Amino acid sequence: xxxxxxxxxxxxxxxxxxxxxxxxxxxxxxxxxxxxxxxxxxxxxxxxxxxxxxxxxxxxxxxxxxxxxxxxxxxxxx
Length: 78
Description:
single chain; 78 residues; mainly alpha; Arc Repressor Mutant; 4 helices
């Protein structure tokens, strides 16, 4: 498993450590759950999910793109 080193302020590190302890999880588990919560995915997994959603919707690629553009425009106007 790859390793990652990050630099946090003392305050942030304490908060992460305390939260992990309260939830009885490791810091690694807490970070992985946070990544899942925020939808952080590999391109391969994201492509798979898009493909699966497209099949379920019954839309072809062009129709799906048109719908996405329409919904994006509507959201930006709010």
